[in-house]
Amino acid sequence: MIYSAPIAEQFFVLETIAGIDNLAALPPYAGIDRDLIPAILEEGGRLTAEVFAPLNTVGDKEGLIWSPQGVRHPAGFAEAYATYVEGGWQALSADPEFGGQGMPLSLSIAFGEQLASANMAFSLCMILSSGAVEALSAHGSEELKRLYLPKLISGEWTGTMNLTEPQAGSDVGALATLATLADDGTWRIRGSKIFITWGEHELATNIIHLVLARTPGSPPGTRGISLFVVPKFLPDAEGKPGSRNDLSCVSIEHKLGIHASPTCTMSFGDEGKCVGWLVGELNGGMRAMFAMMNHARLNVGLEGVAIAERAYQGALGYARERVQSAPIGGGAPVRIIEHPDVRRMLMTMRAITQGIRAIAYFNAAAIDRSRAETDPEAKAAARGLADLLTPITKAYSTDMGVEVAGIGIQVFGGMGFIEETGAAQHWRDSRIAPIYEGTNGIQALDLVGRKLRLDQGVHWRRLFDEMTAFFGVTADGEPALFRSQLQRYTDLLTEATMRMAEVPMMDAATVATPYLRMFGIVLAAYLLSRQAAAARARLAAGAGDADFLSAKIATARFFVDNVLPQATAIHTTVMQGNIDRLFALSEAQLCT
Fold it and tell me: Which of 413, 418, 404 lies closest to 310, judged by CA?
């Protein structure tokens, strides 16, 4: 299926939700040519459509070849990655001090969406490298930064994140990989890791592993974990890849989806000679790794957006061509896009996709402001908003990515169940996103257990006040019901949030997942309504593409009428959540 980047939609969301013009006025981004932003989106769209999208089906069908010497990709992958590096795309939002272009993360996220839509499995390589840059930038020594950041930012080297072990999945504190201090001040790493994304490949000259490990005598649990940089090839005196480090990929997983992404079992120190360097403070590994994990969680949420967009485009294209059945009332067979239920499915896919895109870009803009604001209060407020939004972006967007991909299969009908249409691949690829980088259940627990209670709840209260203030404004030509509906759901979300913040954590945990979904639905409705208001204002001023702007209004209206009402039922569930009811059946009764 052909992919075409939704450039006009992306730029509109960057303008109206991310506030890209306001970001460009802040010191780190001052001097950015506004006209450059759509040009970057255009060129990114061309690259992803022409270079990466054609490899999506190839990678899915051919997969990877593992041998003791390494992992090989199908033909075309190495050339595509070289084109990506040559274009400087990995450096888009990175620090200019180390070779980056210094653009806002919001713009980089928009390009990342294009890349993940075109080829989700391939895009994981770039996401992990960017995460490694985040961790080293925040916690690495100056020596480590000078050695590794320029190569990671250029894309010449790639990065990985090594947390999971067979006995330590979501419970990171149970990991057993050991790091022992050597006489020369480096560390010797010994242990194994599983599910390591892009842990081995032939596309870059070096792979930089960030590895969580314990040191002798460290405290138990997460308090005793440290982070180490462990390169595949040890850099020589000139910083070039030298001798091979004592690490290897011993196998790759055979997965439901993302077949072109090598998911590796890594072994470190089989010969006792695996060299690593400490990143940050001893026993400060989780703090250092969270810089990488939070970056990854935003990008995984973006995968939900990307796969939803790709599934929508495929379903829309098929519905416009497939002729099947007479319309209601009789007549000659028509294209299925003319049937009401198919149109309902397409509008649902479109509205949800635009809603989760707005959430992801809103999240990215909050991170941009947390880095760029000079006023301490504004910086803290932006950081708090970003922290609040991250679990919602990750969990709600990926859940919706799976849902939209499933609706896409339904639009195709029987052909959606046939692999060559590509619809099934989108669902298979999407299904990992609610699982990795912290399952969506863990995201929900993080939201109700940490983020709602952060700074006595000031961040969610500020967001809800912003929503209420917006809904109280009357826009010319906008039905009063539209905003009154939205305010009613904001009130329901406020009530549910207050309960989540007040009840014992065990009770909150029973309904944390539905609560997060409710938050995501109401937040998406708010952001879509903001776009609808901006579209209405431009139409009134005679500015912009009238068809595009009227479509934005209609899509927001559909979401409010057809998706937002789900929040009412979820509100009932959340308000009644109780640990005793959840465990009313014994384990034996569950088995009957």
Answer: 404
